[in-house]
Design a protein that fits this description.
By secondary structure, the chain is α+β, with helices and mostly antiparallel strands. The chain has one domain (2-130): 2-Layer Sandwich (Nucleotidyltransferase, domain 5). It has a three-stranded antiparallel sheet with strand order 1-2-3. The chain starts with 6 loop residues before the first helix and ends with a strand. A hairpin with a 2-residue loop joins strand 6 (136-140) and strand 7. 15% of the residues are buried. It is built from four helices and seven strands, in the order αβββαβαβαββ.
């Protein structure tokens, strides 16, 4: 019986159910990955509520390039009004930002050298004059992650 179940439909149903019970989303969805039992890498794009650790929606994608076209369909079924959505530099694109704004979400997108004009604009801001109000230090993905 389980072999006949549409995994995407079950995932969407459970994600919608969780999203409904976790309203309002207090934190941000982001992307994560995993691997299959046979050792082959499975690439998943997931919307995660960081407060509760609940995966609200996920899609299997064909590696990192598959994340870009899956971004909007992944989030389309979620109520994003008032939510802060974070994503890595791969999703720092006008289409993604416009989609989020149109859905009432705020976004925090990473800007790297893949966006040279925006990167240069941000590099020119007076970052050293902005007071640091919080510091976070954690271990993740095999490295120490530090946020000002």
């Amino acid at each position: 019986m389980l072999a006949r179940v549409d995994g995407d439909a079950v995932d969407a149903t459970i994600g919608a159910w969780l999203a409904d019970r976790l309203r309002p989303l207090r934190h941000r969805p982001r992307a994560r990955g995993g691997s299959a039992r046979d050792g082959h890498q499975v690439h998943l794009l997931a919307a995660l509520d960081h407060h509760d650790g609940a995966v609200l929606a996920q899609r299997q994608v064909d590696g990192a390039p598959g994340e870009v076209p899956a971004f909007q369909p992944l989030l389309a079924g979620l109520d994003l009004a008032g939510v802060v959505v974070t994503a890595d530099a791969l999703h720092t694109q006008r289409d993604h930002a416009s989609f989020l704004v149109d859905r009432g979400a705020d976004d925090l997108l990473v800007v790297k050298a893949n966006q040279p004009t925006r990167h240069a604009q941000l590099a020119g801001l007076p970052w050293r004059t902005i007071p640091v109000l919080d510091r976070t230090r954690d271990h993740g993905h095999g490295r120490v992650e530090s946020e000002p």
